[in-house]
Design goal:
alpha+beta; 3 strands; globular; binds zinc ion
Length: 100
C-alpha cells in the first residue's frame, strides 16, 4: 500500500501510476476497499502484481477518511480480504523482497 504521493517514488512507479490512473477513470466503481464509498481521489492505493516484469497491476483505493481514521487493524483486515479476491491463498510479502 502506498500513499498517493509515494507512488511515483516506487521503483515500479510507472506501472503503479498507470494503474492509479485507471482507477481514477473507472468512475463509480472506484470505491474505497474499507468503507465502500466512491473514492475517485483516494489517499492511498493497494497494488498487487505478479512476476518479475509485470505489465499490469491490480489496484484498489483507500479513501481519505479511512486513511486518516487511525484504524490500522481495520485497514489490514480489509486489505487481506482484497488480496484474497485477487490472489486466493496469497499473502503479503516484505516490500524489500519484491523490489526490482
Ligand atoms: Zn473509506
Amino acid at each position: 500500500m502506498l500513499a498517493v504521493e509515494e507512488i511515483s517514488l516506487h521503483p515500479r512507479g510507472d506501472l503503479l501510476c498507470r494503474a492509479a490512473t485507471h482507477w481514477r477513470m473507472s468512475g463509480s466503481s472506484a470505491t474505497c476497499f474499507l468503507c465502500d464509498a466512491v473514492s475517485l481521489h483516494p489517499a492511498a492505493h493497494l497494488f498487487a502484481w505478479s512476476g518479475e516484469a509485470p505489465k499490469q497491476a491490480a489496484v484498489a483505493g483507500l479513501c481519505c477518511d479511512c486513511w486518516r481514521g487511525d484504524d490500522p487493524t481495520a485497514i489490514d483486515e480489509a486489505a487481506a480480504r482484497v488480496l484474497q479476491q485477487v490472489v486466493p491463498g496469497g499473502c503479503f510479502l516484505d516490500p524489500r523482497a519484491v523490489l526490482p
